[in-house]
Amino acid sequence: MFVPYLDLKAEYASLRDELLEALDRVCRNATFILGEEVDAFEKQFAAFCETKHCAGLNSGTSALHLGLLALGVQPGDEVITTPNTFLATAEAITYCGARPVFVDIDPTTANLDPARIERAITRQTKAIVPVHLYGRPADMDSILEIASRHHLGVLEDACQAHGARYRGRRAGSIGHAAAFSFYPTKNLAACGEGGALTTNDDRIAEFARAARTHGQTGRYEHEFVGYNYRMEGFQGAVLQVKLKHYEEASARRHELARMYRRLLEGARLRIPHDDPRDDCAYHLFVVYVDRRDEIRSKLADRGIETAVHYPRPLHLQPAYASCGIPRGTLPESERACDRVISLPFYPAMNDEQVEYVANSLREIAGSGHS
Ligand SMILES: Cc1ncc(COP(=O)(O)O)c(C=O)c1O
Predict the structure, then answer these.
(1) Are strands 216-218 and 221-222 parallel, antiparallel or unpaired?
(2) Omega cis (within 30) before 356
(3) Which residues have any ligand 1 atom within 6 Å of their CB?
(4) How far is the centre of ligand 1, averaged over its atoms, from the C-alpha of 310 (Å)?
(5) Which of 94, 205, 270, 331 is most buried as measured by Cβ atoms within 10 A of its Cβ?
């Protein structure tokens, strides 16, 4: 049996008529940048996230950048975040001229460990960027409590967490603002690049709406030097279709996750912990194993594709070598990156495929504690 890591073509096949109709609508209206389709998506996504505002942008990276600027992050500031994430989280901090300060993760959830944050706060600290990695909400109550005591902004990196809930609240509605990505592999995916900033703060929303279109508050009225971070009409139209089908896709992701957990019980590996008070968006299904590369290669021999999110924590990426943080400094993130495997995981996966992957992994990894 061949089990691909991801199958984007299957999703397209199931939504083809609706998607083509949506794309045709944009062509007929010739509203290719922002416009009515993006406006409509913004309203629907704000309602979905249970926030007052949503600004449609051209990527999650842009959303992180504008979110940080809106929180007042400036050159010379420090912003606390996790090293166990995609590079964009830290890049957005660097774009502001600020310095990312990496704080280690809690190994049970793979998210920023609030117990380690306070030690990293200095007079330069301006904000905290928790990432809801793999769709699993970060410990927001503890993070917000620390932020409020130190007067820091909190920007959620919700790029992998569409629809997740933390203690009943939607990811994206908890911090001062949140960044979402609609990159084609995400749970809510555009047919191209896309992103959004959500917030309950009128001032942040107003800033993002102007900043995404060259600082304009009216036609050719440029209040400040902004960016070209606008969402395309095509993506607004596509995302409305995808949002309509989100719940059924999400239900299947949860079903697949339950199957994996059940079938992998007792195997020599570890799965991140789900807090029963929360609802993980299940963007990825990851496990931690010893001898990661050997296990991946044996799975590949059986026709099973896997991936690694992420092979190196950000402080060990050449891009952040200038931080001068040697291996051994953030041991939990380093250990997670050395051991993590992302298993095949997408709503179109069938039960036989999940059973085949789980049974193969059990055989290869063996049983017992890891
Ligand atoms: C955690 C995280 N942050 C930021 C981003 C950046 O989003 P984009 O690729 O839409 O710029 C991504 C996705 O790639 C991500 O997974």
Answers:
(1) antiparallel
(2) no
(3) 59-61, 85-86, 88-89, 131, 157, 159-160, 181, 183, 195
(4) 13
(5) 205
Q: Is the pTM of this model over 0.90?
A: yes
Closest CA to 239 of 4, 22, 8: 22
Residue nearest to atom 8 of ligand 1 (CA): 60
76 C-beta neighbours (distance < 10 Å), count: 11
- Helix, strand or coil for residue 3? strand
Q: Is 202 exposed, middle or buried (0-12, 13-18, 19+ CB in 10 A)?
A: exposed
Lookup result for tokens 């629907």: 44
Nearest ligand 1 atom to alpha carbon 88: 4
- Residue pair 262/287 in contact by the 8 Å Cβ criterion: no
Per-residue confidence (pLDDT) for residue 28, from 0 to 100: 96
> Residue by residue, what is the 3-state secondary structure of 51-105?
CCEEEEECCHHHHHHHHHHHCCCCCCCEEEECCCCCHHHHHHHHHCCCEEEECCE
pLDDT digits 0-9 by tens, 246-262: 999 999 999 999 999 99
